[in-house]
Amino acid sequence: MNSSALIHAIIDGILTGSVYALMATGLTLVFGVMDIINLAQGILVILGAYLSYTLSVHFGVDLFVGLVFTVPTLFVVGIVIERLFVSRLKGPERTAMSILVTYAISLVIEGILNEVYSINQVQLHAWYIDRSFLIFGVYLPYIYLLGFILAAVLLGALYYMLYRTRFGASIRASLSDQTAAALVGIDTKRVATICFGIGVAVTAAGGMIFGATNAFNASSSYDLISRLLTIIVLGGMGSLAGALVAGILMVLVQDIVAVIWSPIWSSMTFFVVLVLVLSVRPQGLFGKQSSRVA
Amino acid sequence: MNLKQLPWWGAAFAVFALFPLVETNSFWTTIAIYSLIYMACATSWNMFSGYSGYVSLGTAIFYGCGAYTMALVSLHTNMPGGAEQFLLVPLGGLVAMVVAVPLGAVALRVRRHTFVVITIAFFFVFQLAAINANFTGGPAGLSLALIPWQGNQFNTPFYYVALAILVFAIVLSALVRRSRFGLQLLAIRDDEDRALGLGVKVKAVKLTGYVMSAFVVGMTGALYAMFLGQIYPQFAFDPVFDVTVALMAFLGGFGTLLGPLVGGLLLETSQQYLTSYYSNGSLYLILFGALFLIVVLFMPQGIVVKVKEMWMKRGLKDGENVSAASPLTVAGSAKS
What we know:
Number of strands of chain B: 2
Number of domains of chain A: 1
Distance between the termini of chain B: 5 Å
Number of helices of chain B: 15
Structural class of chain A: mainly alpha
Helix content of chain B: over 70%
Structural class of chain B: mainly alpha
Oligomer: heterodimer
Strand content of chain B: under 5%
Number of strands of chain A: 2
Shape of chain A: globular
Radius of gyration of chain B: 20 Å
Order of helices and strands of chain A: HHHHHEEHHHHHHH
Number of helices of chain A: 12
Shape of chain B: globular
Strand order of the largest sheet of chain A: 1-2
Distance between the termini of chain A: 51 Å
Strand order of the largest sheet of chain B: 1-2
Largest interface: A-B, 51 and 49 residues
CATH architecture of chain A: Orthogonal Bundle
């Protein structure tokens, strides 16, 4: 084990982890506000990546400039999915049903993406993806830093919106208690729809960075969604801080294990951490102790 | 299942038992074998998840464990390909049960929503392990000894073993549903805290249900490996399997006995047929996903309950509403 590889792992863990934290925040927000588990989050990340790919390859739009188009597009996609399908789910089994519905949606999107882009893996290209800079004695492509900044800015904006605006207050009210929020006059349906839109919109940015740092095709979504789900469970479902901490923790643990032990088993260590944490704290790191679950 | 319905079940069984005698085309009998396998899996999934409300999306773990048990044991004992291998089918089920104990002990510490996600996480651990471990043969998989049966003779034994597993699953599920243990599972589904307060040992009951449902799935996994003659990590531990089994139960009727059978039969037959008909995989994904959406959105209680409701309403005047079938009353009333 050499120390520069370890430093590389730690830097990569923090930088890439923040991107996962961003994608997981969208997922946990949707769960917290609506009790909906959005299994389509993984394929929507890939959709975001493909949109950036099309813009950059066919129209020559820079990846970061392209976000001006892709983020609103995915926001609308989120709203449409919520209005058409998710909002129809009612009754005590709606969380379980939401898994099935969003899985079906992700199958349809996967099929369409395979049809349009074929199953050959692609990767995004730009000068900042191919060029590297020197930091603490290790070379790192600029995209890692830019991705980190983007994720930090978006997370900052999201937190500002949640904690400093009136609409954010109504989201947080819905997060802590749906019924009470409705009773004090919050339009919880509207909050839910917009939250779903926001939760999906972050995948445009996450997808662009994912596509810039990994070769991908539509079936990369399975790996993504399993990671995102474990992040929000580890952090505590519905907890925003939990998604942030667990997202960075996941990539960090994985990268460090890859260096000091073996890259083959590293992707499994996070699941092991998850199991260990849950056997001590079943509600996750930042989760609230679930009271009565009817 | 009550005694009055027994003749119907008997008739259905006769139809299934006679099927390979009438239809000898191996294209159709292969589809039938897969349908029986999935019906058994959906029934036993429903026996835990449907009754207790704890939706598990890690069913493929048990399927894969059963499949690898069959492959590894038959290879290491140099078992010749043939009927002897069927003896390993129950062993596959037992191994799956043993695996289910620690998994259930950890996963069932949390409540429903988190449980779903943990089962998914466990699934990926197993898939990765199967791909990376040495003894599983890695991504290249394992090939079993060739079975020297020809043509349709090849399919018939598999068909009857699959049918036997299915019958076992149905009987087990029906017995559980009628037992005190089954009522405890239903109580957990309706209100876990109240069940605990009333003296149900929720942890033990949930774990027992989870482990029991692993048995049948493990057996079908073993049969699948033998039928296919080779096994790869991505077939044995398939994320689509996890969701398909759950979907079958939801499609037919979550928590009912007949539901998973109807769902499994409809879904697997059409799935097998569509895949052979449309070689284009992505078009098939779109079709399957769309069908899936339509069913979940328009028949959220499942086909069995919907049909039953329409049957009951048939003689009534408008406005008389029969059973405003919420899934909870469904679980209590559907004794089909």
